[in-house]
């Protein structure tokens, strides 16, 4: 059971200091900027597939690790970027707390910095919020080798221009993340998962209906003829909702396997490409060939298909969404994994890159060619 603030210690938890190699990192960045040498920013490498390959001198953050500050009462934690994600989650779990956005690991070497840089969130994202929503501040090495702090450890911080949330999903193309401060939340008193057999059309209708009701839903996925639900919250609320919805009991490990792409769906692809389709809520089924797993209540869909990238992206765009290729080009995926930018948006991306990284040393081409 989660401890209340009154039950928690009145003082911050003793933080694990780890190792601070920020000055070494700053020096390497200064040399690279002076020589216009591209840098490939690296952590645990578990999400290296997510984006375009980068050629350059490796700047590794794996030794820059440790929890700098953790205050369970204030629900804030600051941690160095190279800290293993599992280490941070274990420290939070010991205090009955968690990262609400449920970041995927994709391997035991996943780091906190990699999770923020990719901006990926798990099944809880539509109900709890995205990674960006829980980043309070960060320390960042700029192109000239200076380490600056943006944001802080409170939800509102107006001291200077806050670049911290801009770093979420930037994949290291704008600077080197060295430390991140998060807002964390208590674990729920009760959790229960259900499996209800029904066709996908019925599942989408039910989810649209339940979305207008105060139900303790924190995950919803459909696959292989069944809707999978997770309920989290107060004991009585979870029990009453489970009784109302019915269905069979589902092992909680399902959600970990979905988040980490360990389900059978993500196994042998028969030469097909894996795509993530991001769509508006209540979007009906799309006319695309392949196997589909519906996550986030249907707003995120995993598609395994042999269809070409243009067909997939055009179909998804007509529905108001966008498609990201998860299969690396080396394995037959799309050359450009992310949806091409419109001319106007591309202009702003170039201007931002030129301002923060004038010599183009930070992960060049990781997101888009030329950026």
From TrEMBL:
Ordered alphabetically, the record's keywords are: FAD, Flavoprotein, Oxidoreductase
Give the FAD-binding PCMH-type domain ranges: 8-187
Which Pfam families does this UniProt record tie to the protein? FAD_binding_4 (PF01565)
**Do the record's keywords include Coiled coil?**
no
Superkingdom, according to UniProt?
Answer: Bacteria
E.C. code: 1.1.99.14
Stored InterPro entries: FAD-bd_PCMH, FAD-bd_PCMH-like_sf, FAD-bd_PCMH_sub2, FAD-linked_Oxase-like_C, Oxid_FAD_bind_N
Q: Native species of this protein? A: Modicisalibacter tunisiensis
Enumerate the GO terms in the molecular function aspect.
glycolate dehydrogenase activity
Question: Which protein is depicted?
Answer: Glycolate oxidase subunit GlcE
């Amino acid at each position: 059971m989660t401890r209340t603030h009154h039950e928690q210690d009145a003082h911050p938890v003793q933080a694990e200091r780890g190792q601070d190699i920020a000055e070494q990192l700053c020096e390497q960045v200064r040399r690279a900027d002076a020589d216009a040498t591209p840098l490939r920013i690296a952590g645990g490498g578990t999400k290296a597939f997510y984006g375009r390959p980068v050629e350059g001198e490796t700047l590794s953050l794996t030794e820059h690790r440790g929890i700098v500050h953790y205050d369970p009462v204030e629900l804030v934690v600051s941690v160095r970027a190279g800290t293993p994600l599992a280490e941070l989650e274990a420290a939070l779990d010991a205090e009955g707390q968690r990262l609400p956005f449920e970041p995927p690991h994709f391997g035991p070497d996943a780091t906190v910095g990699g999770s923020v840089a990719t901006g990926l969130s798990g099944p809880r994202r539509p109900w709890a919020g995205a990674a960006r929503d829980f980043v309070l501040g960060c320390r960042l090495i700029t192109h000239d080798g200076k380490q600056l702090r943006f944001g802080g450890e409170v939800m509102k911080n107006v001291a200077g221009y806050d670049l911290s949330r801009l770093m979420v999903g930037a994949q290291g193309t704008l600077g080197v993340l060295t430390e991140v401060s998060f807002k964390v939340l208590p674990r729920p008193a009760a959790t229960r998962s259900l499996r209800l057999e029904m066709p996908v059309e019925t599942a989408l209708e039910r989810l649209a209906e339940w979305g207008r009701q105060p139900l303790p839903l924190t995950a919803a996925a459909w696959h292989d003829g069944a809707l999978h639900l997770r309920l989290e919250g107060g004991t009585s609320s979870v029990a009453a909702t489970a009784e109302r919805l019915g269905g069979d009991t589902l092992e909680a490990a399902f959600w970990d396997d979905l988040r980490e792409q360990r389900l059978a769906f993500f196994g042998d692809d028969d030469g097909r490409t894996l795509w993530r389709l991001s769509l508006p809520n209540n979007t009906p089924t799309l006319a695309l060939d392949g196997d589909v797993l519906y996550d986030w209540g249907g707003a995120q869909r995993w598609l395994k298909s042999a269809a070409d990238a243009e067909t997939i992206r055009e179909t998804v765009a007509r529905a108001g969404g966008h498609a990201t290729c998860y299969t690396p080009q080396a394995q037959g995926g799309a050359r450009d994994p992310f949806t091409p930018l419109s001319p106007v948006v591309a202009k702003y991306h170039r201007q931002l890159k030129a301002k923060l990284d004038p010599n183009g040393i930070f992960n060049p081409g990781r997101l888009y060619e030329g950026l």
